[in-house]
Known about the structure:
The structure holds two protein chains of two kinds. Chain A is α+β, with helices and mostly antiparallel strands. Chain A is 65% helix and 11% strand. Chain A folds into four domains: 2-196, Four Helix Bundle (Hemerythrin (Met), subunit A) (Up-down Bundle); 227-277; 278-424, GAF domain (Beta-Lactamase); 507-661, Heat Shock Protein 90, CATH 3.30.565. Chain A has helices spanning 7-74, 77-100, 103-128, 134-220, 235-277, 281-297, 320-323, 328-331, 359-368, 400-466, 475-505, 518-535, 554-570, 616-620, 629-639, and strands spanning 300-305, 315-317, 343-345, 373-380, 383-391, 514-517, 539-544, 549-552, 577-584, 588-595, 643-649, 653-661. In chain A, helix 4 (134-220) packs parallel to helix 5 (235-277). The longest helix of chain A is centred in the first third of the chain and has 87 residues, at 134-220. Chain A is rod-shaped. The model of chain B has no long low-confidence stretch (mean pLDDT 88). Chain B has a single domain (3-123), classed as 3-Layer(aba) Sandwich (Rossmann fold). In chain B, helix 2 (34-44) packs parallel to helix 3 (60-69). The A-B interface holds A 445, 448-449, 452-461, 463-464, 467, 469, 488, 492, 496, 499 and B 10, 12-13, 16-17, 19-20, 23, 54, 83-86, 104-109.
Amino acid sequence: MRRDRSVGRLLTRAFGLLVALIVLSGAAETTALIMQRRVVDELSSHVQPLELANAEMHSVLADAQRSLRGYLLTGDGQLLDTYHVARSSYAVTGRKLRDLAQDREAGRVSRQLQEADAWWVLAERQREAPPRSEAAAGYVTEGKRLFQQFAAENRAFDADLAGRVADLQERSARLSVVTTVVVVVLTLLAAVTAALAAVHVAGRITRPLARVVSVIDRRRSGELDLRADAGEGPIEIQAVAQAVNEMAERGDRIRRAEQDVARLRAAVRQLGYRIRAHLKVEDAIHEAVRGLAEIIGADHVLVRMAPGQTDVPPLVSLHDEHVGGVLKELADCDVGWLGLGDVWATDDPSAEADVQPPEAERHAWAAVGDGPVLTVAVGGGDERLGALTLIRDGGPGWTAVDVRLVESIAADLGRGVHHARLYEREQHLVARLQELDTAKNDFMSTVSHELRTPLTSIAGYVELLLDAEAGELEPPQQRMLQVIGRNTRRLRELIEDMLILSKIESGAFRTTRAPVDLVAVAEQVLAAIAPAAAKATVELRTEVERPLELSADAEQLDRVLMNLLSNAVKFTPAGGTVTLAARRGDDEVVLVVADTGIGIPAAEQQSLFGRFFRASNAIRQAIPGTGLGLAIVRTIVENHGGRIEVASAVGEGTTVTIRLPVQ
Amino acid sequence: MTVVLVADDDADIRDLVAFKLEQAGLEVVAVEDGQAALEQARAHRPALAVLDVSMPGLSGIDVCRMLRADPVTAGMLIIMLTARVQEQDVEGGFSAGADDYVTKPFSPRELVSRIQALLSRARA
């Protein structure tokens, strides 16, 4: 069918037809020209000379007859001369006529010449007849008859020739019309053929080609499943579509392969994260072994650690049951032949020459199977930790991608093992520190316990003495016992504060945080401090916003408020005020304890939170204290991630501001 | 006369408490360890026992638990003396069945008044 025809053949046919039409047109025109020329030739070289010769013949004979008749009638010799001239002319004209005549005219010419000859015979006789004689007159009549016979022949011939001329002219005109018509028709045909061929070719080439181009464009813009229709259009376009489809297939194959590699890379990256996330060396190794078997595909995946590096067994395999079986020999092989960063793969052309597995290793591989082997060194930092080996029972060798990915996993494993070891060491250290901390706390607890028992005796007996249980005391004795009692109390407070500080300082992680209702804590502390404040006639004021919650250790917060408020009461003279204010700030709680007390000298405010520090004016005024209260407060606040500030002026008062994060 | 059992391994404290209680008009049986405390408690059936928590051998808490477990001594009033401020000690004391506790160092006056308060509440 036409659909299957090739564009080439189609174009060949269309152009062949065009050429044929043009050649035909040319041939028609040439033929017409030749024929016209023939008509003209016949007219000019034959018919017209014949006509001329015929007319001349008539003229010669008419001259001869007229002059002969004149001579006969007049006897004028001059006329006879004319006759003679005509006679010689006749011979020439007659020959000319005979020469010009062709077969078809020969009959008429010879008949005319016979008539003329007949007249001439009579004329010769006439000429010899005496002029103006009877005989002469008779000859004239006879001559006249003969001449008319000749003239009739001559006229008939002339008419014949005129008919020929008309005929030729008519042929010429007809030929001209026919030629014009033929040329016009052929030209039109050629034009139509050319137009049809153009339209057809456009339809048969441009449209299918445009479809193929659109397929290419749409593929380029992402419609990758699209294929060109290779069963449509001329075979050349089909071939183009076919080529486009083949390129698409190849592109898809390449892209699929790239996607596979990308997927593999992503899986390997994920595996790397998982390996590095493990905190135990053994877990990291097992993760690597399982992941590699799944991602890269190997029948045996095993990790051999260099001796003395970790606590894990010398060989960890995907299949534990193989360790004592097919992998037994391999487990005994030292991986020392692989340096840091070395790789060895079966049939790897890029393998470095100096990485060569020893005979024992090769032997051990052979015991596992005769498939391809890939071994990569595992290193952490600058240390050689061991080697990662993949063995296939058979099947394809390792691709460059496989090798690179396994190297990447080996690097991750190295880092993972390195980190896990560091972590394990750190855990060990933390455990040691915790043990030490517990020991210190136990010691502090024991010490304080051991100190309390003698203190109990001292304080108790001093109290008995002061209570006059052992008899009345003299005033100086009483004063002295009071000093002992006061210092016993101070010692007791010191022991308690030291114990608290030791507990609090033993690490922020012991601070147990929970939502705390600060309003409740404040009320509790205010209630506890109220008797002391009343005794010292110090007014307690509170400006606490409600509700006020934060995440903190309630017991420690209680201690902070207790220490600050008891300090404030202790250092405020009678008639003063102590104010506790608490409010919510941006993501923090602000606690303010302000007093109108004796204040802290500016130079000493820096050291205020140091252990055993006591302000000079407090010592001077013999206000008791351990010097640990604010150190405890600072430690607790810092454990909660808060800040503490002091503003104070001697004689005016002190304001302590604490900011604690809500979370 | 109301009998009070005092158990403390520290002789000075034992004497201090005994002296103060006798001054307050109570009869005191003083012992220096847990085992003796159990024996004396069974022998004298005191109305109240003052037990030091940390004693060699049986601790005050052990003695307290055993006294409560024995029907003969189960109704006895018990005050614990503790040198530790840790809550677990206090809780341990109460869960073992103590009626009150006093933290060392304590004021003898305060101890006596607590004992008298417990005794009068028990009589009422």
